[in-house]
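Hey,
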Amino acid sequence: METNERSETCGGRSGSMITVALLMLAVATILISPMLFRLGTGYKVTESVERMQTERYTGDAGIEFGLWNVAHNPLLRETLVGAIGTPVPPVMPGSVNGLAPTVEVVCVSAFAAGSQSPDQTPTADPEATEEATEEPGDPDETPTPTPEPPPTTLQYAVWANSTSADQTLRLTGARALIVGDVHSNNEIEIAGAASKVQGKMEAVNDITISGAWFVLDPGPMETCQVADYPVSWDIADFAADANGQPQGAYAVAASGQGAYYVHTEEWNISAEDEVIPAGLHYCTNKVHISGANVTMANGGVTIVSTDEIQISGAGLDVSPYILGLSLFSSKTSTGDVVKISGAGNVGGTIFAPNGGIEMAGHGTFIEGAFIGDRVRITGSDQTIQLAEGIPLETGTPGGQGADYSGGSEFAIPDVPLHLLSGIISGEPTFDWGLWADSTARKGLELSGSGHTVMAAVHSNGDLKLNGSGHTIIGTTESVNAPQLAGTSHQILGPAVITDARSCPILWNLSDYAPGGSVAALAASEGMYHSYEGDWHISGSDEVIEPGLHYCSGKVTLSGARLVGEYVTIVTPDEINISGAGGTFSPYIQGLTFFANKTTKKVAFSMSGAGNTGGTVYAPNGGISLTGAGDTINGSFIGKEIKIAGSNMTIKGVLVYLERGGGPIPTSTPTPHPSPTPEPTATPDPLVPDLAAGDAIYDIRSRIGGTTVNVRVKRYADETLEVRSWHVD
């Protein structure tokens, strides 16, 4: 009996052990499966990172190859300067890390030997100087060169003074433009895509560029030493005592002219078209200007506050009463003490020595200078243009605004604004963002609300601004006087009444049709594509093959993020583009889209944001641009042009035309494809001179999902200066 009991006990234990083992196996399965998944995911991440690193190294190697060619390949340089704006692909001699990058080099600007590029400092000719200064009887005397006189006016559009604050100077919005020099006593961060600085850029510490297609011209980009504010004021000079009586030097002088105002309560200017009394306004509370089209009485306005200053209304137009100073907040804060989100002209310095300055909003344009402890430029399509003539010496108070060079007028030079934001070279360019050619029709019309045109415009007929809140920044020409219906419109630039004239550029359809001269040249390079009937491309992220595309019917391009690099599309019919984010660049120099349909309606239409990269040409029909809050980059020539919708921004692009050194003829030019031109036995005599002088080149190296972009200047003495280097 005992034996049987022991047997039963043993069997029971065995069953329990099996159960426990099964439970442990189940638990192990539950635990091990995610561990194995995590290990597999980690391996994939590691593999992805390694691939990205390999692509980066390979892309950099392609850039180095391009730099070597710019430095040591005179034949390539002659080819590049002979076709400025035309990419040429030097062929890599082998692969790198088993990969072969695609490398392109393009000359964006060239200057004849012996001439000076815009950023080149003149140097004295020692022989000429010696000849002019040599005293009789002392032939060995070495003349002392005359030093360059220091500037007397402010050269910096943006100055961030802090040596330790995080994000001392930061540009985060897309397509920011700064016209003037930029300085930071700490760091500079540029994160927005397609931003540009028209001047030099200097920082004590790192300059970080993570946004794609940043442009610095003429530069340079360099490190510098910590420096004091280039201009400075003391809040005590503007203050009043406890009874509101003037106490500081500026306050007393302004009071003597009957132009001193003290605001102890929060000062709000919210009414449209309000006029601020001329003089010095001293505020011990917050200042908020939200009304549209706020202006000043004759004599200038300076606003000084011990608290915050906020401007959100569009169309502010003032010039400084205190020489060089428009807005001054002395508030000490780790945040922003001056905030601007409305377009306008402050005409002088915005000064925040103890706090930050923020430029926010969309499509804001400010003429002045931002001088603060920290500066942030957020939003998109922001423009800061340094006001001319801001003195480095603050001078004495007393109504200087009346004689200030900025005055109450918007100080934009008589060249189109989009040329200031691009690369200026010796090549002939099409200088207009919008050109309405018809004398018998409406010409140029903006309807809807809130559009901004950042380009020079011309109309052989009417110029109409309907709706509300439209702004044109740049030279404006029209045969008939501008008609401003609705409210809050602005023309910020010279408005000229002119005679009708022919468009300075003309393309002929027959040159691009099968058998035409340009078609034959493109075909000889394997870059001609012909389509019978209508041509329709739809879907997102489609890529159009480079070259000249001729279609006998309608062309319809729809879908988001279309890409057409080095593409020209020509049709005797109409072209319609829809979908946001399309990006194009021209194959035929200066020409991206040519719609030749003869119609009283629209021959070319574009809705949504995009970049044509060159000219849209509709010589016998209208052009329609529509959207809401979109930005379109391009130059447009049509019988008439209509911009509808709301809050659109139209930015002109720099369009290079035929090189020849003289004016563009009104007769038909001879356009040619942008790829490498055929060599000739007798080169253009301009080419050797240009190749021997200073020149600026862009180099692009692409491999997989990585694109490396570099801008370099090659000087006549064969030295190279890298202007920018960034990775997309």
